[in-house]
Amino acid sequence: MEHIEEFKAPPKVTSLTQLVDELHRVFSCDRVNVDYVKRLMEGYVSNPEDWRKYAKRDKFKYTRNLVDSGNGRFDIMLLCWPESIASTIHDHTDAHCFMKVLQGELQEIRYKWPTDETPNNGMEELGRTRLPLNGVCYINDSLGLHRVENPSHSERAVSLHVYVPPFTTCQAFDQRTGRTQKCRVTFWSKYGKRITYQPSMDNSAPPDVHTIQYNCPLEKTCGERPRLTRQHEAIQE
Predict the structure, then answer these.
(1) Is 92 annotated as a binding residue?
(2) Which residues form the domain of 154?
(3) Which of 24, 46, 104, 171 is the most buried (most CB within 10 A)?
């Protein structure tokens, strides 16, 4: 996916169904304008009647709820955030990730990729961004790593995510040391129905973890992704 020139403004979408339909059209091409997709998602004003059936929650952790599988080219999902819940620091497996806040407010904390100095100094923070209701942002691995959190102690939050292409594993990072753990990502529900995760028969398979994404200036990059990734013990969320 590239930032290519796009002269046509995105259509105004008034429902989640219209947004999903337009995303199918946009991602049917091999080259997509990132800014076009961001403007498209900004044009949709959150309406709980559109997405309530997908918002399957858990009291103690955030949940990933699949809305549309995008014919295997992309995933659209709702993430439901309880009060004061945060993700681990994570990457996005070379995927392009768009996110829109549908309810409440979220905060992204962005980090540089670990270096040889990270075990001594901890992971370097690049910045913090508050995302209000209907706010939209974009990230990929060239822009860094991040964690996402619901900063409210009293209000829940919901966010809409688009991942291109879909991914089933990511890396979680220990903030103090930069150590990584390869993790599977799973769904709490699909198409509005709760599912039961069936663990792999392979006992060596990595533990589950959830993932997310967020906003930082697109022109601010964080250097190239390190070629060497070490595996370490699991990180508790």
Answers:
(1) yes
(2) 54-194
(3) 171
